[in-house]
Design goal:
The chain is mainly β. The protein is built from one helix and 15 strands. It has one helix at residues 2-28, and strands spanning 32-38, 45-49, 54-59, 65-71, 75-81, 86-93, 110-115, 119-128, 132-147, 151-167, 171-176, 182-189, 198-199, 204-211, 215-220. It has a 15-stranded mixed sheet that branches. The radius of gyration is 21 Å and the shape is globular.
């Protein structure tokens, strides 16, 4: 019994020291605000692969694609274009185990995307452990895939295709247009769904899937 107690004490001490070390390290880490801007004429596609980031998309005031984000020595971004002019934005980190203990820095967990309205390029978003929030935008094609977070779309207009996939999170959207404008495919596993599983004959493709979350899509006429 005494040996078990000693083992428990040692394990508790290790985790306590790790926690205190994490708190100390985080208090010393500098948070740097950064901005990236590019003309939409230079981009053929936008791809975002994020982890632990609360992402918002709103309309750009200067007509450019603007990315506002935060970096530290432990968490940062890769932003690059390929030969086909597709823009790739990806979160990276070099954390060790002690970095997962301690204070959560909320500012460092957000990224703001500003896009020109009516941006006529495909947009693909992947995020985990946080939310994707978009309001008052018009897209040609939009694909969102999220794990452990919610998708919130408010007053969104789609010209061609909208695909929304969520695992362990809800999908809430208000789409500009009538119900009849959309060809719908949907499925909610372990959740409520206000859409039919299938509805053909619309000019806009709407594909919505949720695993362990609810689907609530409303349609708003122009």
């Amino acid at each position: 019994m005494k040996k078990l107690y000693n083992l428990f004490f040692i394990i508790t001490l290790i985790f306590t020291l790790s926690y205190l070390t994490g708190c100390s390290n985080k208090s010393e880490i500098e948070i740097i605000e950064k901005n990236y801007s590019i003309s939409p004429d230079k981009i053929s596609q936008l791809n975002l692969t994020l982890k632990n980031k609360n992402m918002t998309i709103s309309e750009s005031k200067d007509g450019n694609i603007n990315i506002n984000y935060y970096e530290t020595s432990k968490e940062f971004y890769s932003i690059e274009t390929n030969e086909e002019n597709a823009l790739f934005i990806k979160t990276l980190n070099n954390k060790d185990i002690s970095d997962y203990f301690g204070i959560n820095i909320s500012n460092n967990n957000s990224i703001e995307i500003e896009l020109p309205n009516n941006l006529n390029i495909p947009i693909n978003i992947s995020n985990s452990n946080n939310n994707v929030i978009i309001s008052n935008m018009n897209f040609s094609s939009l694909n969102i895939d999220i794990n452990n977070g919610n998708i919130v779309l408010e007053d969104i207009s789609i010209n061609n295709d909208l695909t929304l996939n969520s695992k362990n999170g809800n999908i809430d959207a208000t789409l500009i247009g009538s119900y009849e404008d959309f060809s719908i495919t949907s499925k909610a596993s372990k959740g409520k769904n206000n859409l039919p599983e299938s509805k053909p004959n619309g000019s806009i493709n709407l594909n919505v899937n949720s695993n362990n979350g609810n689907i609530n899509i409303d349609f708003k006429s122009n």
